[in-house]
Predict the 3D structure of the following.
Amino acid sequence: MAERVINFSPGPSTLPLPVLQQAQRDLVSLPNVGASPLEISHRGAWFTSVIEEAEENLRTLLVVPADYRVLFCQGGATMQFAMSAMNFLPGAGRPAEFVVTGAWGERAAREAGKVGPVRVAWTDRDDGFRRTPTDEELRRELSGGVAYVHVTSNETIQGVEFPDTPDAPEGVPLVTDASSDFLSRPVDIGAHGLLYAGAQKNAGPAGVTVVLVRDDLLSRIPEGLPAMLDYRTYVEHRSMYNTPPVFAIYVLMLVTRWLRDEIGGLEAMAAINRDKAAMLYEVLDADPGFYRGHADPGSRSLMNVTFRLPTTELESAFLARAAEQGMVELKGHRSVGGIRASIYNAMTRESVETLAAFMRGFRARAGS
Ligand code: PMP
């Protein structure tokens, strides 16, 4: 096997090595099937058991209540920006409210706005997206009686994450884009009307988007939507109305199996993720004049750690020297600049410790 770098990519991102090795073993010929997962019908027995296990594992890991459907869609989270609006906005006769804590929430609001009325109830855009609202701010700003409230649980670009699921007003469905912290910690699914996540950070490869939807909301969907844009099609056909992304769902199933069997579930995963993030934030906090974290401490992401150095020259040197030591994809998004270390589930403690040690050393060499 060629040597693997320590890959801090924001997505698609590093996957658990045992999952990749299993996929490699199966790639040319599946035991008892004699063909590759890339070559066989999604209607066959092998894939049927794969998609069933993927759903079952998600239900177990997330403790999904019985009145929720688990759907496997395509089109990424970006399609969900539009699809959630097409399903739940037109029939409501009221706007949807968006809590915009970063670039993805902004996009989600823009897409939904093409479908129906949208109101941004809270944002800290003018402060550069550094925090999530307090419970008190949400209580004050959310109207109640709207079609739904949309939030982004973790803003991948800014590194801003809700510490807990926010409260929507009584009776208003909460719609969450959980793309970049899905399966990183336990979530109260029952607090949601709809939750969606592109798989390519914590759950698997690009190409599949997991959607959890509460049954009672399906009756609000207007008639006449194109089949692939109507959640009911996925419910009625168990996500196999057309050809699903077979390979992506297969790898997602392996990732959920790894989370269940190797990690021991989402509580255990969350503890590991808290430890990993703490290692990096400790380095930032030890020297805030040198490493300047982007997010306010109470809204810091456990998945994407974003920070600046005193000059862009130092940032370039940081990236170059990190790359020399096999640590790649650390460049921040151009809208934030600086450094972003994405440390999703599959990023090991050892790799994060390697980065933390590098950061301490880099700071020491830079002098004061
Ligand atoms: N939402 C969030 C929070 C994301 O991080 C991303 C991708 N980085 C998206 C939405 C868009 O996802 P996709 O590329 O799967 O459409």
User: Anything to note?
Assistant: The chain has a mean pLDDT of 97. The domain at 18-263 is CATH 3.40.640.10 (Aspartate Aminotransferase; domain 2).
